[in-house]
Amino acid sequence: MNFDNKLIPGLLIKRYKRFFVDVRVNNQILTVHCPNTGSMHGLLDQGNKVWISKSNNPKRKLKYTLEIIEVKKIKVGVNTHSTNKIVHDALQNNLIKEFNNNMDIKPETKFGANTRFDFLVSSKKYQSFIEVKNVTLSRKRNLAEFPDAETSRGLKHIGELIKASKKKFKVYILFVIQRNDCNSFSIAKDIDPNYANALSKAVKNNLKILCYDCKFSPKGIKLNRQIKFILNE
User: What is the dihedral of CA 82, 86, 91, 94, to 10 degrees?
Assistant: First the structure.
């Protein structure tokens, strides 16, 4: 995924009302849209270096969006709206080894009456639903975790994926770790035990878990390497 415009560096001042952050750029303080509704645990210290993007939409009230926060020299992508773009780019460029390049990719595909999964990937041999989750949390060295807050939406998606599995779809959750300092991934059971328990049961019922970290460049963010998933029992 490439950025639409060159990112602008700044320093984080504070986050408030979930969707707003103040960022110092040179001698100016900008109010910036925060697209991440999670707790962003460990990322929000005042003075952290950040990168923001400027929108091309003249009708937007907030012209800037928070994209990346740097913590201890590690870049962390916090724009959850970018996650599906990163995955779409990876699918198109054959960067996810579980899927070949001879397939049809349909984003935001409806399943049932009230559910849309992030991707439906189809070939002559299979149809697969992929639900994508953005990961920023790392509380222990080299370990990424999800979620960083309770997620009723994520819990619903697990249930719907199991329903899809019973209808002969292959089902996946792809955890996109928007950082590159972690070698393994697990579910933060202490933060959301219901999600952890549901995922553990779903894995035993044909749900496949994929975990990839990301590579950052001035041009954009790309899916990088697959990392180990540690299942909570």
Answer: 170
